[in-house]
Amino acid sequence: MPTNILVAGVGGQGILLVGKLIARAAQLAGFQVKTSEIHGMAQRGGSVITHVRYGPEVYSPVIAPGTADFLLAFEKLEGRRALPFLRPEGLIILNDYTLPPLRVALGLEAYPSDTEEYLARRHRLLLVPALAEARRYGLDSRSVNVLLAGVLAACTAIAREIWEEALRDVLPPRFLEVNQRAFARGFDLSITWRHNTAEGVVNQCGTSQWNAFHGKS
């Protein structure tokens, strides 16, 4: 069975780069890979979704609703919109970030205030304060996407060194060092989350108590 990863967010968040990184890591691991991208109306601010499927045999580049193993959401509302793609046992990796869409900015609609709770009631949820973590470790805010990719990478069966090789393949040399640090931070945080999950440091909904991890990683 293929592994299905859906990456969702808005234009300008580096989603397409993360899709390329996932695909390259899967190729280096010896899998067949197929990808598909859906762009919103605007280059920045419009919805962007990347489908990545990899496995021994993959026939379609599109993830069917209810079959994604991972939903990596760079923005809260975009994660909520993409939720129908996730299978019941799937994992949501949710960036703790909001970017109100145009209709909300114009006052025509309200931004949902209960997105974290809504998601956690339905699936396992890992809420990641990616920008805060990047700033905490002196990383460029533009490396948030790769930090989130590191969180995802640690949840897959692909070895860390393969992901690191993929990172070298897809990034220009001048951006490599800061993104290597961002990836490593995300990967290590994800391992800490999995360890604490095994010890029961999560609530009943499966929402990560991320603040409890500081000082332990």
Number of DSSP helical runs = 8
Cα radius of gyration in angstroms: 16 Å
**Judging from the principal axes of the Cα atoms, what is the shape?**
globular
Adjacency order of strands in the biggest sheet = 2-3-1-4-5-6
Largest sheet, if any?
Answer: 6 strands, mixed
| Helical residue percent band | 25-40%
Mean of residue pLDDT values:
86
Provide the succession of SSEs. EHEEEHEHHEHHHH
Structural class determined from secondary elements: alpha/beta
Please give the alpha-carbon distance between the first and last residues: 33 Å
Low confidence ranges? 200-217
Beta strand %: 15-25%
Number of E-type strands: 6
Textual characterization of the structure:
The protein is α/β, with parallel strands linked by helices. It has helices at residues 15-28, 76-82, 102-105, 115-120, 130-136, 144-153, 160-170, 173-198, and strands at residues 3-10, 32-39, 47-55, 68-73, 86-95, 124-128. A six-stranded mixed beta sheet has the order 2-3-1-4-5-6, sandwiched between helices. Helix 1 runs parallel beside helix 6. It is globular and about 45 Å long. The termini are far apart. The model is unreliable at 200-217 (pLDDT under 50).
Q: Concise description?
A:
With 217 residues, the protein is an alpha/beta fold. The protein is built from 8 helices and 6 strands, in the order E-H-E-E-E-H-E-H-H-E-H-H-H-H. The chain has helices at 15-28, 76-82, 102-105, 115-120, 130-136, 144-153, 160-170, 173-198, and strands at 3-10, 32-39, 47-55, 68-73, 86-95, 124-128.
